[in-house]
Specification:
This is S-adenosylmethionine-dependent nucleotide dehydratase. Its cofactor is [4Fe-4S] cluster. The chain is α/β, with parallel strands linked by helices and 316 residues long. It is built from 11 helices and 12 strands. β8, α8 and β9 form a beta-alpha-beta unit. Bound molecules: iron/sulfur cluster.
Length: 316
Amino acid sequence: MSSENHLVVNTATAGQLNEFVINWHITEACNYNCTYCFAKWGKPNELHRSLGAIEKLLDKLANYFIHGNPEIKRILGYQSVRLNFAGGEPMMLGSAFPTALVMAKQKGFKTSIVTNGSYLLRGRFQLPPNTLDMVGISFDSQQHPVRRELGRIDRKGNSFNIDELKLAVQHLSHTQKGLKTKINTVVNALNWEEDFSPLISSLSLDKWKVLQLMPTGRTDFLISDEQFTSFVERHLGKGLPISAESNNTMTESYLMIDPNGRFYQNSKGMSDYSYSERITDVGVETALNQISFNCHRFMSRYYAENSSNICGEVLA
Ligand code: SF4
């Protein structure tokens, strides 16, 4: 996940959302150990372990958000629903992940994944063709020592690098028709002076999302607003698809599902989560009520965020 971490809503048109996004943190497991990761749920009883439970969850979400006519749909006026698989690292799950992806597609969702990229080329499985509408790959530094210092490295010392990133984007663009590609970069004390311009322009991305490191991990990697602004300004005016999100705009939670299959939100800060019961047990509407979900607040938060910066969405 991650700082990869999380959000949720997308493009708006004159008072309506085109796309409503549900962020499912399908697993806590990850092969990396980023210093700033807050995808921690304390070894949850992860719902994906049962394919029947995955299908039940997807059915409930599809019946409510896609085929139903709930208040949230009437108010937000969205045209489609995207299920974003986040983690942890969703591609660590082996066959359960592509199965969930195919099921989600069959049930009418648009699909996306936020990944650290390490399994895109070296995974035990290939993503089924044409099952993914969007991919978000986390990439924080072009320098191996910096990625290692940030914890973006596995136990064997492997760290998803520039060449792998280029190959993975190229490969996915061939196998996933109409795929939108996005890179997420968390700007911190170790990379804020890096110039990503040549790399990003070479990738033909739909979006390069840059996020200021949130104050949840090691404080020595935090940067000032001025440093973040300087990073952003260095990359402006070069035709890059940059979308910047500072600390000030990364405050509220969105519609998120944890690995247990519960809605959760963090309306008062990262450490103050409230959780519903399992959606598969109580249904979508009851679960939403249990986290006091309010679509008016959701909508106003969406517009506040998107008027103050270029966009908003998850991290890996
Ligand atoms: S890659 Fe994402 S989920 Fe994994 S440790 Fe890093 S931030 Fe956390």
